Amino acid sequence: MSTSEDEQERELEALLELSRRGRAKLERLHEVLTTPGHYGTGATPSQVVYRENKLRLLRLLDEHGQPRAGRPAVLFVPAPVSRYFIVDLLPGRSFAGHVAAAGFDVFVIDFGTPTNEDRYADLPYYVDGLVRRSVRMVSTITGQPAINVVGYCLGGTLSLLYAALYPDTVARLVLLTTMVDGDVQGGIAWVAHRMGLEGESYDNPRLVPAAEVKSWFEMLAPGSNSLVGRVSDLWERLDDPAARLRDVRTMSTWVDDVVPAPGRLLAELYRQFGPGRNGLMKGTSSIGNRVVELAAVRMPVLSVSAEKDAIAPPEGVDAIVQVVPHAEVLRLPGGHVGIVAGRTAAALWQRTVEFLATSRG
Amino acid sequence: MTIDAKAAKDPSLVERWIEDQREWQKTAMAYLDSMVKNDDFLVHLGNAMRGSLLAGKPYPTAPASPPAQEAPPDDRLDRVLFALHEMQGQLTDLRLTLDELRNGGKGSRVARAKKPTSAKATVRKAKPRPRARAGKAGKSGKARRRG
């Protein structure tokens, strides 16, 4: 065989290998797309104990399908602009499930997906309405006058505001990646500011489309707002084992399933907490006609920030000690989502359980 | 093993190409089969072609025309619907309070959740803010106060 023929054969072998690898990726993709999994449903068995508008209040059940009655109650408050199941992602990777297994009666708020009429929902509707009634419902069901509250991201903001208004109903408060200092640059508030959030009308609000909300988050994750970048990332990932890809799919289903946002809520959040307003730090925030005084937050508080959080910069989260001096501040390695549901989230789960457990008895 | 025997056992490059083409046909048929049998598969495949493994719904995309910044001209129905949602919550509050009253002091601390628990210490009246526009029909009193 001549040298030229050798080269041709080598090139054909390389093409054959390329073809085989491409086909293997597509076969793996097919397997992942056709295999059922925990996509958007939460991982832990639960029962709906309360419904209001789109909200569902879920109570996690034990391995026998029974609620953990008699245990200290914990209410998870996720962000209303994303799906609730980030706190209950997968078996073995469920924050709420971990807390429940540690001996707590866990409830999770699912704010649901707003529809057109919900564009009128404002901060009082969420804090004084949905969150307060959820706490009331948990208290009524469990017979515990004060319960533990764990808020994530914007859900943490709602929880903090609620705890300031109704401190005697909150035994312990855990805030996860919850921005307190709106003047700290970076993060979703600043991106939304640059993208025109200040243009949202309070009086004539619109339902801000999910794609638009998502575009704000994408601005914070270079590559995710580019079709070519996303497809390229996925193509590379298809070398992973199918089981790992199913986990990735669960997370993708959370990341990409942003819900529409009530324009009135966004307008109010911007006016009260946005860059330059900074109502939590300045003590000027209000719910309805009541000023919120963070000095009233007297229960033990754990505030957790993430070192690489592009959505809620850690400096803006840790600033809570300036307005709630007794708050314990914990900064963990990882990003906004990773510390809650990533592979290293166990550190957060364990610290949260320890923090909540010290309030027992 | 002699070179001739090895050559006889190992498929030639051409044979491997033919086999690879057969495998591609199988892969294509598996995709076609799923497209026909599984309604969700097309949605999921479309998402994958956008670089997302999102399950259960199409990848969110901006509408073809930019959304109108203003609310629809006649938004009365939405205002009424939302007011009904607010009333639903208020009725729940009422029911919970009645339950607590029926149970005597047992649920009294829960009942306090309806009002700030230490109003003097925690809450002061906010200064009334000027309203940009009068509220419309169907808005609850609480919402109408917002400025």
How would you describe the overall organization of this protein?
The complex is a heterodimer of chains A (361) and B (147). Chain A contains 14 helices and twelve strands. With 361 residues, chain A is an alpha/beta fold. Chain A has an eight-stranded mixed sheet with strand order 1-2-4-3-5-6-11-12, sandwiched between helices. A two-stranded antiparallel sheet of chain A has the order 7-8. The longest helix of chain A is centred in the N-terminal third of the chain and has 31 residues, at 3-33. Among the domains of chain B are: 10-49; 74-119, no CATH class. Chain B is built from seven helices and one strand; from the N terminus they run H-H-H-H-H-H-E-H. In chain B, helix 2 crosses helix 3 (39-49). The longest helix of chain B has 27 residues, at 76-102. At the A-B interface, helix 1, helix 3, helix 6, helix 7 and helix 8 of A face helix 2, helix 3, helix 4, strand 1 and helix 7 of B.
